[in-house]
C-alpha cells in the first residue's frame, strides 16, 4: 500500500513538472513576456515542491500527509495559498513601514532573476549571456540584503538575531561555493552555462569533480537554510528567525523566494555536474527522449534528495555550522581548486 502511495506521488509530481515546463516554454514564446522572469512556472514548481515535501515526510515518518483537500490532498498547496493571501497582513507598530514591506518584495524578485539565464535545452534560454555564471552569483549575493533589512525593519530582537544568523551563514558558504564553482570554470574556461553543459558531452563533471559536487551540495543546503543547516529558523530559540513578524502576503513572498532558491540550486547542480539536458551517461540510444525531459528528471531527483535529507537529519549547532564552513570546507575547496588548476595546466 505504501509503495503504491509513493508511486502515485511520483507520478503526479512528474506530470506537474511537465506542466510547469510547458508553461515555461509558452512564456518564452510570447514576445511581450520575454522581458519578464518566468514567474508563473516558478510559483507552480514551488507549490508542487511543498506538496512533495509533505507527502515524502509523511512516508518517512509512517503517518498520513495532506489527504483532505482534493484527491489524496493534492489541492492542499492551493488551499494554503488562498489562506495566506486572504489573511490580514499585520505590520508591527514600531517597525520601519517602507523597509518592512520592501524586504520580502526585494528578496522575491532576486530569487526570480536568476532563472532568466538557465538553459533548459540547447537554445532554450531567456538570455544566453557569456557572463552568466558571474551574473548568477552576483544576484544570489544580493539576497542577504533582503534578509538583513527584514530583521532590522521588524524592530524585534528575535527577527534581528535570525537575520544576523542567516547573513553570517549565507556569507560564509557563499565564499567557498564560489571557489567550488571555479573548479568547473577552470575546466571549461567559460562562464556561459550553455557551454558548461556542452562541455560535458564526453563525461559528466560528477566523475572527475565529485569532491566539488559534495562541497557544492553541502553549501546549497546551507545557503537555502535547509536541514541540517536551518539555524536561522530555529523554532526553539528564534521562533522562525528573520521572518517571525511577517504574515499573510509578505510571508508568502519570503516562502516563495526560499523554495525558488532551493529549486534553482538543484538546477545548478544539474548544470554543473550532471550534464544539464544531456541524457544519462550520454548514451546515444537515449537521445530519442527530449532533452528537456532529462533536465526535469534530474532536477526532480535533487529536489527529492533535499526533501529526504530534511526528513532524516538532525539540526547542527551554530558553532558546528560555522566551523564546518570556515575550518573544513574552505581549506579543502582551496586545495582542490589548486589541484584541478595544476592538472589542467599540465595536461591541457
The Rg value, from CA coordinates, equals 20 Å
Task: Please tell me the total number of domains.
Answer: 2
Average residue pLDDT: 81
H/E series: HHHHHHHHHHHH
Task: Give the overall silhouette.
Answer: globular
Sheet/helix structural class: mainly alpha
- Tell me the total number of β-strands: 0
Strand proportion: under 5%
Give the proportion of residues in helices: 55-70%
Straight-line distance between termini = 55 Å
Low-confidence stretches: 26-33
Main sheet record:
none
DSSP summary: helix tally? 12
Summarize this, please?
This protein has helices spanning 2-29, 39-60, 76-86, 97-113, 132-153, 157-188, 193-198, 210-223, 235-238, 248-273, 291-312, 318-347. By secondary structure, the protein is an all-alpha fold.
Notes on the structure:
This protein is an all-alpha fold and 348 residues long. The protein folds into 2 domains: 1-86, no CATH class; 92-347, no CATH class. 67% of the residues lie in helices and 0% in strands. The longest helix has 32 residues, at 157-188. It is globular, with a radius of gyration of 20 Å.
